[in-house]
Amino acid sequence: MQVATEGVLNMRGKSDIEIAREAEKKPIQDVGAKLGIAPEYLLPFGHDKAKISASFGELDSEKPNGKLILVTSVNPTPAGEGKTTTTVGLGDGLNAIGKNATICIREASLGPCFGMKGGAAGGGYAQVVPMEDMNLHFTGDFHAITAAHNLLAAMIHNHVYWGNKAEIDTRRVKWRRTLDMNDRSLRDIVTSLGGPANGYPHQSGFDITAASEVMAILCLATDLNDLRERLGKIVVAERHDRSEVFCRDIKADGAMTALLKDAMQPNLVQTLENNPAFVHGGPFANIAHGCNSVIATKMALKLSDYVVTEAGFGADLGAEKFMNIKCRKAGIAPDVVVIVATVRSMKMNGGANRENLAHENVDLLKKGCANLGRHIENVKAFGIPTVVAINHFLTDTSEEVNALQEYVTSLGSEAILCKHWAKGSAGITELANRVAQMADTNMAQFSPLYPDEMPLFEKIETIARRIYRADEVLADKKIRNQLRQWQTSGYGNFPICMAKTQYSFSTDPNLQGAPINHSVPIREVRLSAGAGFVVVVCGEIMTMPGLPRTPAAESIAVNPAGHIEGLF
Fold first, then answer.
1. How buried is residue 36: exposed, middle or buried, by Cβ count under 10 Å (0-12/13-18/19+)?
2. CA 20 to 30 Å from 563, out of 274, 303, 346, 530?
3. What is the CA radius of gyration of the chain?
4. Is 421 assigned a catalytic role?
């Protein structure tokens, strides 16, 4: 999402939601036909969105995959970066220059939508539509995931209530509940008060649905059989002898699969320029693995010559997890990485106040460019060719843009000015041509950051030192012992999913730029046995966010004409 400047809004006179509402959408069957999807494989939700049936067999096709383009960004700032906007714009740009391209992005969570980040459909003239539906209930996938997750919680406690055949130690129930909303009051709770009829009192809590292991599993599963097997592997509790109790032990995996059957099917929508977009899955990148579903990405790769996808937040989170988790699990690799940066965000990383971003300041921009430089170095370490997209704002000056481009050139890369927010595909054709050229030359030599066989704690240290540039990882004896136990229990080959602030390379959200000589404190580790990774919770990051002082929900309403207002 790009934060629109007042000048652009005045010039255009239209907000994102107004632009989206005026879109000339094609029937979803026509969008599917562009990809070669016959109408019988589309399950319509109205006229402008549909699920692709599980019976559509393109995933099993011998057709070679298209080129995979990953869009990531610098660390987010209140200035706005526009990663999703650039993903959509680049997809439209590739189609505009005659390429067969599909966009793959995540679904929106209600938490950020009603909180402070806004929606997840892009912005300006680089949007996916229907914007209102996407940012609210869409096709119900988030609700299905929430229901499946909480069904497991209910069955765990019901199992204990009716005799506890699995011999669960009620002090060691691992499975929390989920809600797709920011609600800090639910982070830590006590359940089952009121006497024996209500079950046993238990300390628990809620995470946001985007952080649920069920969400991660849905985004990594390849089909319904794989989904059920992964769900069955979820570790829900421990026995008194510290042996693990799995979801399958309490027979919840079948019913959870039934709830998720439709949610497993990718969603097809379109851009403002009527190009196809898969929108499926929605894990956050600061507390989860931050990528859209494997099944959607793989399907798009079979149906298109180029697939543009994104990974959440900055490259230190989303891109790192895309490479080390998604690519490893799915057997795919990007051909090109686009790093989104803005003049405004570089000035903020250099120390500028948000109120002064409209004023030219080349010195602070140059100082803040260190953040971008760090991301470029990190992405190149995976062996992927990289290009920088400068997402243009009206207040950017030519001197600032030139300084940013010169900095990137000095690192052996290139930065291309993009005006897709204001002009759609016409404003991003230069980047589209360059990305296609880079992808077609097969320059990528992808390699993950660490091997499967590396011990878990060493994997954490590798990420902290090579990606965050930290001096050390701080973990107490309890955490180290837990990691060693998982290592000996057969989970040592799992990748690491770091949960930390998105605003900095460090765990301190106020430490901008490219910090070095810092420490990464580990607060907690969680085993996601079904998803196949270990979550490492660092610093003060919360897996259930809270609402800001003035949440976006205060400005969202339905006007007398029945139209939703206030979404952005």
1. exposed
2. 274
3. 23
4. yes
The residue from 77, 85, 102, 297 that is catalytic is: 85
Mean pLDDT of 190-203: 92
Distance of alpha carbon 540 from alpha carbon 312, whole angstroms:
19
Angle (CA) 474 480 483, round 5°: 125
Segment holding 458, helix H or strand E: helix 456-466
Q: pTM for the complete prediction?
A: 0.94
106 an active-site residue? yes
Residue 118's pLDDT is what? 67
Nearest Cα to Cα of residue 533 among 213, 312, 262, 296: 213
Task: Supply the pLDDT for residue 9.
Answer: 39
503: helix, strand or coil: coil
pLDDT digits (tens, 9 = 90+) for 53-71: 988 976 677 889 999 999 9
Residues in the chain: 568
Distance CA 122, CA 237 (A): 40
Residue 85 known to be catalytic: yes
101 included as an active-site residue: no
Task: Find tokens 């795919």 and name the residue.
Answer: 332
Point out the catalytic residue in the list 142, 421, 457, 533: 421
CA 102 from chain center: how many Å? Answer: 18
Q: How many CB atoms lie within 10 A of CB 292?
A: 27
pLDDT digits (tens, 9 = 90+) for 151-174: 999 999 999 999 999 999 999 999
Helix 253-260 and helix 224-232: axis angle, to 10°? 140
- 3-state DSSP helix/strand/coil percent for the chain, to nearest 5? 40, 20, 40
pLDDT tens string 301-318: 999 999 999 999 999 999
Q: Which domains does the chain have, with CATH numbers?
A: 6-136+278-440 (3.40.50.300), 141-260 (3.30.1510.10), 456-538 (3.10.410.10)
Q: What pLDDT score was predicted for residue 5?
A: 36
Return the pLDDT at 12. 47
Exactly one of 49, 51, 83, 328 is catalytic; which is it? 83
Distance in angstroms (rounded) separating the CA atoms of residues 385 and 106: 24
| The one-letter amino acid at 24 | E
Using CA atoms, how far apart are residues 228 and 377, in angstroms rounded to an integer? 39
Residue tagged active-site, from 49, 51, 99, 106? 106
Residue 217: C-alpha distances to residues 145, 220, 401 (Å): 10, 5, 42
**Distance from C-alpha of 519 to C-alpha of 378, rounded to nearest angstrom:** 18
The strand ranges marked E within 37-164 are 42-44, 50-52, 67-73, 101-105, 122-123, 126-129
Active site residue 486: no
What is the distance between the alpha carbons of residues 311 and 78, in angstroms, rounded to a whole number?
19
Six-digit token string for 86: 């650039």
Dihedral angle sign, alpha carbons of residues 347, 349, 354, 355: negative
- Mean pLDDT of the region 446-453: 96
Q: Does residue 7 carry a pLDDT above 90?
A: no
Residue 242 gets the label, from left (phi > 0), alpha (psi -120 to 50) or beta, of: left
Q: Are 104 and 278 in contact (CB under 8 A)?
A: yes
CB 477 within 8 A of CB 507: no
Q: What stretches of 98-137 adopt beta strand conformation (E)? A: 101-105, 122-123, 126-129
